[in-house]
């Protein structure tokens, strides 16, 4: 059964921007959509362009650390660049719905979500995530062979030194494909600044259930979903916190609809 209304909902305008990301956290009960957690959109005032990367915009502190990371890699003869940085929820909707089946059927959306976050459920909208690429190699962009490139190997070794950790490592149980190019920023180890704390709070629920590998070392904190990092979440449709996972047509359609206006 096709859900033509689903496409209309996903293509509808966003009702409003999210509030300042440093002041928000996920709700007590978090519903995942095809494996992805809900994320709001960064406040435009918190974003800044990355000077050396045209078209790349990130939270200011992330942009600074990305510049440091690229300079350190360049000093070792490795030229890393970014394929994708901040993406608004509206942009994410265009990316997610790029194929004919991606938004017309739940089956198509579920398949697409293995490799792309649904709108409202992408780390890129937070302004903390970067898709890396190393030009001039035999590996095409957004392919798992990136791990075998000099840039991919360097990131696995040095990425956490600059506040970046691998969001979707190989063999993760989140239901998202292994993406060795996709890294999120949580601040360098020992960084107690407000933006690093905000980033850690934003990704605490994901970190508690599906740890990044490699990950930035940081003190144990309460997760945004009310769980300690040492306790794994329970997938449930109950009201006791944890995660409700939607895979039915009706449930997925409702969640996708809500993603158009979801605040963080």
What is the helical fraction, as a range of percent? Answer: 25-40%
What is the helix/strand order? HEEEHEHHEHEEHEH
Q: How far apart lie the N and C ends?
A: 31 Å
What fraction of the residues are assigned to beta strands by DSSP? 5-15%
SS elements, strand count? 8
Gyration radius from CA atoms, angstroms: 18 Å
**What coarse outline follows from CA principal-axis ratios?**
globular
By DSSP (H or I, 4+ residues per run), the number of helices equals 7
Give the helix/strand class. alpha+beta
Low-confidence stretches: 1-5, 7-28, 221-247, 259-264
- Main beta sheet strand tally, sense and closure: 4 strands, antiparallel
Mean pLDDT: 78
Strand order of the largest sheet: 4-5-7-6
Can you describe this structure?
The chain has helices at 4-11, 60-75, 89-96, 106-112, 150-158, 194-209, 249-259, and strands at residues 30-33, 47-49, 57-59, 81-84, 129-133, 164-166, 182-185, 243-246. By secondary structure, it is of the alpha+beta class. The longest helix has 16 residues, at 60-75. The chain starts with a helix and ends in a 5-residue tail after the last helix. 28% of the residues lie in helices and 11% in strands. The strands form 3 sheets. Strands 4-5-7-6 form a 4-stranded antiparallel β-sheet.
């Amino acid at each position: 059964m096709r859900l033509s209304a689903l496409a209309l909902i996903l293509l509808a305008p966003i009702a409003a921007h999210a509030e300042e990301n440093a002041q928000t956290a996920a709700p007590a009960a978090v519903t995942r959509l095809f494996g992805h957690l809900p994320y709001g959109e960064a406040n435009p005032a918190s974003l800044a362009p990355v000077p050396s990367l045209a078209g790349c915009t990130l939270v200011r502190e992330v942009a600074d650390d990305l510049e440091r990371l690229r300079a350190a890699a360049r000093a070792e003869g490795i030229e890393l660049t970014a394929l994708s940085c901040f993406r608004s929820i509206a942009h994410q909707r265009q990316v997610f719905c790029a194929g004919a089946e991606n938004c017309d059927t739940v089956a198509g959306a579920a398949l697409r979500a293995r490799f792309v976050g649904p709108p409202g459920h992408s780390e890129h909208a937070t302004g903390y995530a970067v898709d890396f690429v190393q030009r001039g190699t035999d590996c095409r962009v957004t392919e798992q062979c990136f791990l075998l490139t000099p840039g991919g190997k360097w990131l696995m070794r040095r990425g956490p030194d600059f506040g970046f950790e691998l969001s979707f490592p190989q063999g993760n149980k989140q239901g998202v494909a292994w993406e060795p190019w996709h890294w999120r920023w949580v601040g360098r180890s020992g960084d107690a600044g407000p933006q690093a704390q905000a980033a850690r709070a934003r990704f605490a629920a994901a970190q508690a259930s599906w740890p990044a590998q490699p990950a930035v070392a940081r003190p144990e904190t309460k997760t945004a979903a009310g769980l300690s990092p040492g306790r794994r979440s329970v997938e449930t449709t109950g009201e006791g916190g944890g995660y409700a996972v939607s895979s039915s047509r009706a449930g997925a359609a409702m969640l996708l609809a809500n993603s158009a206006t979801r605040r963080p």
